[in-house]
Amino acid sequence: MTLTLRLHEDPAALDADAWNALLADCPAPTPFLRHAFLAALHRSGSAVTATGWQPVFMTLADAHGTLQAAAALYLKRHSYGEYVFDWAWADAWQRAGQRYYPKLLGAVPFTPVPGSRLLARSDAARATLLQAIETFARDQGLSSAHLLFLDDADRAAAQAQGWLMREGVQFHWSNRTPAPYADFADFLASLTRDKRKKIQQERRYVREAGVTFEALRGADITEADWDYFYQCYDNTYREHRSTPYLTRAFWAEVARTMPDHWLLFVARRGGERVAASLVALDPAQRVAYGRYWGCTEAIQHLHFAACYHEPLDWCVRERFVRFEGGAQGEHKMARGLLPVKTTSAHWLRHPGFADAVARFLDEETAGIAAYVGELRERNPFKSEP
């Protein structure tokens, strides 16, 4: 099949239906690669050239103009907002007198959620797309190309073309199969005594502090609720002497274009809002993603209640199959989330640099395996789920 390659500087200009149809054909679609989400990142000024994210979305279409493959790609002039850390690679390459940035990145900005990155209708189209990414990076004289948080099909394609594989660890909760948890108490009963007691104590402390939670979904989240969430989101970054990646305009747009994909927990004490936690939803796959939280009043254990206890309670009630807790955080295991390996793929143009990174990855991969093995020995469940 002859495919026509095109590069797009404005993701918002791509045909939304065609893009989403291609995503729906992939093995691991997520809401974060829907056209509305990516377009909002661009239109809101969150992921644009001025912030170090220059879009170069790539599409491959057949003779009839039907998309056969596509990728959300960015020329990056830094490594912020990626959650797969290559600062040491950049430093080593630049100390050698070479230019590491810009690099080519295939990822969802600020979103460490595993899923399909090489959107393709067939394995052949996926391989062609991957080769086109490598050719583009080479022709542009870029130091490297990176694909983050891949699904199994993308990982296999990248390995087949000789890209370097890198593993990471996240923490996910899975509902019980084949019989889902009946309620939150049923879930707690599956944990070891010390972990169950810990969660019960945290929930009791928050409850006795006078805090109640309200779960708002989709259209029930008002503009005032979004304003309060953004205040909390901004506070979290400011407390860490940082600046929020996502603008208020971004949240306004995805609230309008993707209302069914958001669940907001609002904590109140004495009638006043004290915290908010935002969860993204994939209703079709019945998967929830913990994303952002913040508070306007510091209350002990409130973070755990807003980010884990309440979302997991909701997931059990709604029969969701998985809750992904985001990047890092061993403390999540004590709340019933287990370690899961993630994969990224990396192409480095210079053979010597690639060889050095490959040796580093061999050691790092062995370390990750040992780390995951150690974590599994601390399994919070009475028996292996």
TrEMBL record:
InterPro entries: Acyl_CoA_acyltransferase (IPR016181), FemAB-like (IPR007434)
Pfam families reported for this sequence: FemAB_like
The organism's place on the tree of life at top rank: Bacteria
Record-linked PANTHER family: ACYL-COA
Name recorded for this polypeptide: N-acetyltransferase
